[in-house]
Write a structure and sequence with these properties.
By secondary structure, the protein is mainly alpha-helical. The protein has 11 helices and no strands. Helix 4 packs antiparallel against helix 5.
């Protein structure tokens, strides 16, 4: 949905209208702050007296923001429904309102520790949900189009890369298993070297010792570069197709879903 200048700080609602531009930017900032807070809570050096105060304060602000976001969306939805009592109940028990309520309730209670998997997963899910109902929705639609429009064509290089990675692991296993059984003693063990070579990461922590093994690694590394380049080209082509369809839809006054 297109934004209007008068709705820059609109909270959004549960009736299909997204937040305004300024509020959407602020929402994205809070999400970044949330992910930073989650990351810092797992860092032991951040848990000093001052650090804990800062992290707890940041978490409180984030929780207050999400509560205000939920209440604001309820208020906006109700106002768009002419403040009818039946409409209010319909809004409160709508799918996304119930999800937001459950998430806010879990975040504000002490049922789980703040660094537990349940709470961290809840924070991440809430952040992703908020991102979906913001300007990021257009990005998500673009990614969805790239993934789902022609997956067989777009991601064929990825399938090819996977097949060649297995072949390389098998070959390097045959060549190096007697020289370095720790890293090449099985196809499964050889996968690490094969994957980092084919994806052109090349950590260098595991290397073949035979001349033929080194030549093989060079050859498969070049093949990996080609596969990654093809994958990048196909994704760019799908992205261009999305832009063309979006432009055509705008000319016709439609919205590309």
């Amino acid at each position: 949905m297109a934004y209007r200048e008068s709705d820059d700080w609109y909270f959004g609602d549960y009736l299909g209208r997204m937040p305004g531009r300024s509020y959407s930017l602020f929402l994205n900032f809070v999400i970044i702050l949330l992910f930073a807070q989650i990351a810092l809570t797992t860092e032991p050096t951040a848990h000093s007296k001052t650090g804990d105060i800062f992290l707890d304060f940041a978490l409180e602000l984030i929780e207050i923001f999400f509560v205000c976001d939920y209440i604001g969306k309820i208020a906006n939805s109700w106002s768009r429904s002419d403040y009818g009592l039946k409409n209010l109940f319909a809004i409160l028990f709508s799918r996304f309102a119930l999800i937001d309520f459950a998430l806010v309730f879990l975040l504000l209670t002490d049922l789980f520790d703040n660094d537990s998997f349940v709470v961290i997963f809840t924070y991440v899910f809430k952040a992703l949900l908020s991102m979906y109902f913001s300007s990021f929705q257009s990005v998500i639609k673009r990614v969805g189009f790239i993934v789902l429009d022609s997956p067989a064509y777009t991601f064929f290089p990825l399938v090819l890369l996977s097949m060649v990675t297995y072949i390389m692991a098998f070959c390097i296993y045959l060549l190096e298993r007697t020289n370095d059984a720790e890293h090449f003693g099985s196809i499964v063990r050889a996968f690490w070297f094969s994957i980092v070579t084919m994806t052109t990461i090349g950590y260098g922590d595991v290397t073949p010792t035979t001349s033929l093994g080194k030549i093989l690694a060079i050859a498969f590394g070049i093949i990996g570069i080609v596969c990654v380049a093809l994958l990048t080209a196909n994704i760019l082509e799908a992205n261009s197709k999305f832009n063309e369809l979006q432009s055509d839809a705008k000319c016709k006054g439609l919205t590309l879903n």
